[in-house]
Amino acid sequence: MSVSRYTYLGPEGTFTEAALRTLPEAATRELVPMVSVPAALDAVRSGSAAAALVPIENSVEGGVTATLDELATGEPLMIYREVLLPIAFALLVRPGTALADVKTVTGHPVAQPQVRNWLAAHLPDAQWESAASNADGARLVQEGRYDAAFAGEFAAARYGLEPLVSEIHDAENAVTRFVLVGRPARPAAWTGADKTSVVIWLGDDHPGALLELLQEYAARGVNMMRIESRPTGQGMGRYCFSVDCEGHINDRRVASVLMGLKRICPKVRFLGSYPRAGVDPSMVGPLRPGTSDDEFVAAAEWVARCQDGRAA
Amino acid sequence: MSVSRYTYLGPEGTFTEAALRTLPEAATRELVPMVSVPAALDAVRSGSAAAALVPIENSVEGGVTATLDELATGEPLMIYREVLLPIAFALLVRPGTALADVKTVTGHPVAQPQVRNWLAAHLPDAQWESAASNADGARLVQEGRYDAAFAGEFAAARYGLEPLVSEIHDAENAVTRFVLVGRPARPAAWTGADKTSVVIWLGDDHPGALLELLQEYAARGVNMMRIESRPTGQGMGRYCFSVDCEGHINDRRVASVLMGLKRICPKVRFLGSYPRAGVDPSMVGPLRPGTSDDEFVAAAEWVARCQDGRAA
Amino acid sequence: MSVSRYTYLGPEGTFTEAALRTLPEAATRELVPMVSVPAALDAVRSGSAAAALVPIENSVEGGVTATLDELATGEPLMIYREVLLPIAFALLVRPGTALADVKTVTGHPVAQPQVRNWLAAHLPDAQWESAASNADGARLVQEGRYDAAFAGEFAAARYGLEPLVSEIHDAENAVTRFVLVGRPARPAAWTGADKTSVVIWLGDDHPGALLELLQEYAARGVNMMRIESRPTGQGMGRYCFSVDCEGHINDRRVASVLMGLKRICPKVRFLGSYPRAGVDPSMVGPLRPGTSDDEFVAAAEWVARCQDGRAA
Amino acid sequence: MSVSRYTYLGPEGTFTEAALRTLPEAATRELVPMVSVPAALDAVRSGSAAAALVPIENSVEGGVTATLDELATGEPLMIYREVLLPIAFALLVRPGTALADVKTVTGHPVAQPQVRNWLAAHLPDAQWESAASNADGARLVQEGRYDAAFAGEFAAARYGLEPLVSEIHDAENAVTRFVLVGRPARPAAWTGADKTSVVIWLGDDHPGALLELLQEYAARGVNMMRIESRPTGQGMGRYCFSVDCEGHINDRRVASVLMGLKRICPKVRFLGSYPRAGVDPSMVGPLRPGTSDDEFVAAAEWVARCQDGRAA
């Protein structure tokens, strides 16, 4: 195993690489682009990389299903960090190209809906064709196959292009969330502004199962931040749920939720507890009464005293 | 403290005494009738008796509020056993009295609704007056103040009366439940067919609090057997709840419910875990999946492994 | 039927009579004391009285089971008004009696726990014996059978007694709630500060039934004000629930709750909607968003439009 | 508007076209392939097509986000039918190509994970490159750009290719669900085996909102069949939910759920009620007690009688 190697969803010049480079440790790691999310994660599973950075959610396009499904199946992996990256596209062209010259544009299929309005307004007649990635689109412009590509502005230099227009995004505040994934080990340290991710499978024949699952969270005042259903591949109508909640597995309220899930669901996969990106612990709101660690400990001690005949 | 003395709600000849005598240990105890439930229980609190037998619920008349309120307030007490006694009244008269001679009848106020239909059918013109207890009514018949008293048939001999009619009860299967109450100590041993009693106070300003309380039980598949609201004395609309559920505090699902209650409610009083009267452990139905001790232990171990980085 | 006759739980001089006399209409009705709650209500059922005033709840002693059970069974009745009466006892004696002369005291059994502390402090050696009612206790003092009776101060004159001590009550703010009961008809007019009472029977074999019942209320933001379990007489462990909630059956959120209860419970008895005593409509807090009549109407209209293919 | 024109997600030769041709009415319509789901649906919105068939869910890959998002936003549309199509791929090649000759393969990105295992086993060295659609991949094979394409076997003839291998699918029972979408009008007729689709937005600052939403369904015994979160585009962590449930808006239990959702959620979009594909009404299980139309009607009538003073 090479502890110094991190893989990421390539090719070079994608937003994933940009996100990875925001991590201080990236400066001292060998960063290896991989052709796909499964490839990036399999490198971790096989031990040829210490960790992989992959996108997991986009505020416009939703969950990245390849990542969700890879984390839910196969050899277990664990999330250690998340990175948020604002997404803005630049229209990259070969030097000298003017907007009026752009007849064909390319980019990742996920980019298209994020620039659709801009295209309709500024290049209504340009023809869109999808590329395997934003960076790949840039390469195809370099090769002359298209006139322009939507990509991160940081990709321009790498492919000998220049940004004709910058900061293009139909939705305000488009953000992509990336996760740094490694092999299972002790979760990231508690910070007080943490997030815990799990995948939960429901029993087949139980209509109220999803409700019961949510009640395990609600009963302990643990806020759910994201819930996403994914098919299990067992047939239409069979789902598992990818769920993020506030708090760390070392918070007793979260540990208690996980125990409840483990008991009532046929399968639960723990994906890690890790700091919430961009949230300072001092900004986290107060807990619901009765859900602090102290209150959990006090309640357990009270029951123990009752069992021993020493209840006050 | 006299370990050999048991008090009970007197006077002699009441159903409570009959219930107490069904306990094998009663044969070797000094049995002391007390004038009221509070008096019987205060003898336990003060140490002058080891335990007290008092009625807590009647299948026709409902909860015995004096007992419920005494258990909820004052120095804590604990329930160690319950006794179920079928309630049937005899019409006790002085020897030689015929039904046609009965112009006045007496009995405990609680007895009246249980014999009302019988009275209307067989003694429509007799005048009812309440006595302090069924046994007291028998005494008043002995003294000649009334012609007949409703009481347990076992009270006849004590007061020189005879049962003119037996097995009187408007409701089929009328039963009274009594509890043997002592000072707080280690709960009664686990049998597999147990019951756990608590008193729960809700926060003042929380409309959904009762719902949350019930969900603590429901979430662990713990069946509630009885719930009774009692005023707290803090004003109209302020209640506490006396709740019995299936299971023993040493069952992890029950311990988990109690911890939940302790956390979310301002006050919980544990009244004991004790065998369910008349229920053989082999008759107890299966647990809901996910609520056995083994499953609770497995879930806790799984979370511990996740915390340690050793999750499967 | 005599529309001019109201019955009440007698005898004369009880708190019930005092409560009844707070109603303006009492001045123009014939007020007839009855020997018991069933007798007072049966007079209404038979048409010999237009309405009956009976106690239903005491802030110290809890529900009046005779009233709860009479309303739950037999020919249906309906509540049209409620009356709240602060309860304070006077110690009534024959003129000339001093406190030091009081060796025996009497009163209704329900009075005893409300004066117990006072007795312990001021008459520790006096012997208590229960009377059929507080007024009856006063009569027995008049007859010389006891030295003093706890009763409402208003009862003194009627029995030729005088109040030796006034305003006796262990609990601050002890209040009894009375209800004016008539035959079923259109409920009392909506005021904006109303209460709705029902009795609900649960299915036999359904552990979560009580939870579902409460959720019908919670889902519409309808605050439950009182819930009381009563045995159905079908055997130990079989209960029905007497429930009061805020709001009027003509409020759509309340009507919706009642429809839900009617569907999921084997039996529901509507006991009436009537003004909340002592609550001005202007004091009633805001409704939970989504539960106003306007929002109910708007939602129904939206669904109708969807059904007709005209949804916005 | 041309009532005779249906659009679909093209190009010709895709599974969508195959699904569309399973509809009897397709034989008498002009079927027009469109370049994207938005284009297919916009043709309906503009009136240039009467309806559009688009994929909405795949049992392996999950929801088709373009379709989910188009239905959730923009001018309202309505689902009138669903079509289920088993998905099996053929490996299409130019006549004469042998398996050993295949060095490069193409197909839609969604096809790749469904044939990944097959590729690893049979063409471990072949290089995959994505095409804009399965049909487009076939066209590129025809043009000689790739050696083979994964597509529906029905696409072979159209592009002068032949199926070298048939029935390729990693997952057993892979199925894609398509929906026939038109402008809003009266929903499809009730059949007894129906499905109702909605999009629900939750209030921003309400952690328990998803739980309340699910309880609206659960309280009426309405089974949820699919729930999918989608970003609203308002920023990370803001979701709406696409939900399918059993039953028709003309079923009172479903109408009641929709009214509840409309009241408690800031926005609900009704997407239609339509027959469940492949489910015969005689196969549909019994309703939960208390949720039939008759029971809803009876409950409403009972409340109306209570309001009128005529309750039994």
Features:
homotetramer, 312 residues, alpha/beta, D-Maltodextrin-Binding Protein, domain 2, Alpha-Beta Plaits, 3 domains, six-stranded mixed β-sheet, five-stranded mixed β-sheet, 8 helices, 30% strand
Spell out the helices and strands of chain A N to C. EHEHEEHEEEHEHEEEEHEEHEH
Number of beta strands of chain A: 15
> Biggest interface pair, residues each?
A-D, 42 and 42 residues
- From the spread of the alpha carbons, the general shape of chain A counts as elongated
This entry's quaternary arrangement is homotetramer
Tally the structural domains of chain A: 3
Proportion in β-strands of chain A: 25-35%
The structural class of chain A is alpha/beta
Describe this protein's structure.
The structure is a homotetramer of 312-residue chains. Chain A is α/β, with parallel strands linked by helices and 312 residues long. Chain A has 3 domains: 97 residues, Periplasmic binding protein-like II (D-Maltodextrin-Binding Protein, domain 2), CATH 3.40.190.10; 80 residues, D-Maltodextrin-Binding Protein, domain 2, CATH 3.40.190; 125 residues, ACT domain (Alpha-Beta Plaits, 2-Layer Sandwich). Helices cover 27% and strands 30% of the residues of chain A. The first copy, chain A, is built from 8 helices and 15 strands. In chain A, the strands form 3 sheets. In chain A, strands 1, 2, 3, 4, 5 and 11 form a 6-stranded mixed sheet that branches. In chain A, strand 3 and strand 4 form a beta hairpin. Chain A is elongated, with a radius of gyration of 23 Å. Chain A starts with a strand and ends with a helix. The model of chain A has no long low-confidence stretch (mean pLDDT 92). Chains in contact: A-B, A-D, B-C, C-D. At the A-D interface, helix 3, helix 6 and strand 13 of A face helix 3, helix 6 and strand 13 of D.
